[in-house]
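[step 3/7] fold_predict: job queued, chain A
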Amino acid sequence: MRKRYTILLAFTAAMIVSSCEKETTESKGFLAINDYDEVTLQAHDTLVAGNYYDQKVYEIDMDGDGQNDVAFWSVITGSPGMGMIPQAGLMALHEGALLYEQNFKDSIFKHTEIDTLDYSRVEIYTNNFYTCGQETPEDSLIRTEDNTFITLMKQGQIGALSSAIWKADSLALETSSFSSRYYVEEDTPDTIKVRRDVYNTCHYLMSNEIYYTGYQNGYGKLGWIKFSVADGFRISVIETAIEK
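[step 4/7] structure written:
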């Protein structure tokens, strides 16, 4: 389920296309991951890990023209009552920096389970699960959502996915498959009623898995970004590449 994130750092870079001279050799229209003969490679081996309301940002000049093109960001938000909320993302810094993404129309269903415990007072726990698929025939369709998620690859050809689109965008990098919130709806000497709402995440990364995603500059040159995310906010930027 898509979440809305507040970027704590105000970027001052305007969304402009660089006026610097760039190599304009035509791209083949596709690029095989790990085809190192076709690309200019940058090794980063950099950890980006924010702290509690202390965002860390790592900007990358993908094509060596002196203008930073993309940035990874990491931060932890939340509160003592809500708990810590780790967040991470990848964003384009100008309109000529295009990220590889896909659009999804997700169906959200509601599944409810109620547990009643009879101790010195009655305890009633209502668990509402908002899932990305119907788990039982009784689950009700709540809504459909239009979500965008980064295109992740282990291998293959960048530019060969017909369902992927290129866009100067900001994309969340989530590693948690769900989030939950608790509400005490009644608390009397005889009864306590607690509601827990669990929201499943329809699209997320596996923690510590190494992924590739595509990149395209304003002249159509393709490249890749190799990275992993752990604990929802620790980003390991491994390497980037762009066509020669």
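[step 5/7] annotate
The mean pLDDT is 87.
The chain is about 0% helix and 55% strand.
exit 0
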